[in-house]
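idk why but the lab printer keeps eating my pages so im just putting this in chat instead. protein + zinc ion:
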Amino acid sequence: MEKLIITAAMVGAETTREQQPNLPITPEEIAEAAQACREAGASICHLHVRWDDGTPTQDRERFRETIEAIRKRCDIIIQVSTGGAVGMTAEERLQPVALRPEMATLTCGTVNFGDGVFLNPPGDLERFAKALKVNGVRPEFEIFEAGMIENALRLWRKGLVEPPFHFDFVLGVPGGMPATPKNLLFLSELLPPGSTWSVAGVGRHQLPMAALAVVLGGHARVGFEDNIHYRKGELAQSNAQLVARVARIARELDRPVATPEEARRMLGIPRPSGVV
Ligand code: KMH
Ligand code: ZN
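predcted complex ->
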């Protein structure tokens, strides 16, 4: 088995300070959290940014400021979100891609998302894939249900994305595919050979899904974007605390944790992040 890649999804667009008082919001807070997650074993940070009042934004300059702050502190792979928040336009969501980060997400279809709809029609998928390609940004396909894998492969057939592919199964979103071991196995078996995958279990599913990924040879995403608790009834102290637990479980199971440099090699990322 390859070493374990742990992705820290530290901010998201939905979690609030009221729900999780230790949510990082400003560029400096996010950079500090990224460094702590890196030290705890994360090799990728999945990045959303906020205005100082906590409002989610895809503003390019806010991303630039945050990425520069992270870069001053550590070598973690920066994966910008192109999902943003429900209701944002494709144009808004695509802004950080022009900064030419190492990775960006590419959600592969529309899904109900709590009370809203996370809209990703076919034309937008192609537009996002082209924007990533032009800027030399490696996609991570976000998969909320099984049909989305086929949508990703359609982009491949159209020459808009190139292998090796990395998928992230986001399981347990109200409206998406439930976070069950059967679903995780089923999804992982649909991928083309040579692909890598991670899983982001939402809420109480974060820990069991991460543990399953460790034993199945997948990779794990944890953090306040998807889950604010350490255990039932107990808020997590920090994103790094959640990362550290997965790293500990992996070491106990004899699965070493990848450094960012090792993760870059595994994911076919040719160069360190360049913010232009
Ligand atoms: N905030 C969600 C609506 C991504 O980052 O690419 C979308 C999301 C996915 O978080
Ligand atoms: Zn996200």
